[in-house]
Amino acid sequence: MKQREFYQQNLSGDAFPDGIAEYCQFYHCDFSRADLSEIQFIHCKFYDERSSESCSFYRAKLTDASFKHCDLTMADFRHINALGLEIHDSKVQGADFRGASFMNMIGHNSYFCSASLIRNNFSYANFEDVVLEQCELSGNRWSEVNVLGAKFCGSDLSDGEFHHMDWASANFTHCNLTGCDLSQLDPRRVDLTGVQISHEQQSQLLEQLGLIIL
């Protein structure tokens, strides 16, 4: 499917029989509870600048779905099933991911996560209590993001932009933070166990402790 416009429609996976939507525009559309597994959205727009409103994916099944070069500003991703979700090179400012599950439970207390969220703008997005452990999360902009209670343990967050974010409110242990600006990270308040950084980043962290590196 290419270059179609949808207005105020309730859409399911049946609307994309070939499994691909390219250069489509969705205005005030509702994907709530829809099964969108493995569907690819490429260069699609889900945000209406005139009304400042976006589309809803509330409780949708987005297993192995893909969004590339899309405008997902203000999208409602609450309580989605997102195992294997890909979002690449997209605008996702202000999107709400509360309750989103990127996990596959393999036991009562055992699980693994799978997601590839790369080179996106997540400014002002809400990731409160979201678990994204050992996922591909590099090259993203995380300005003013709510990460209260979120778990990023072991994920690749390299080359990310972090501004006005409360590092201490989330778990970043064992993450790859190489290439990130850590000037706003206070190592006295954040558990940095197993975190990977470069030699150049050492001085940023040590300056927070009052040390001057010569």
From TrEMBL:
Signal peptide: none
Keywords: Kinase, Transferase
Keyword Aminoacyl-tRNA synthetase tagged: no
Entry GO MF terms: protein serine/threonine kinase activity
EC numbers: 2.7.11.1
SUPFAM superfamilies: Pentapeptide repeat-like (SSF141571)
InterPro entries linked: 5peptide_repeat, Pentapeptide-BTB/POZ_domain
rRNA-binding among keywords: no
Record-linked NCBIfam families: penta_rpt_Qnr
Protein name listed in UniProt: Qnr family pentapeptide repeat protein
Gene: spkB_1
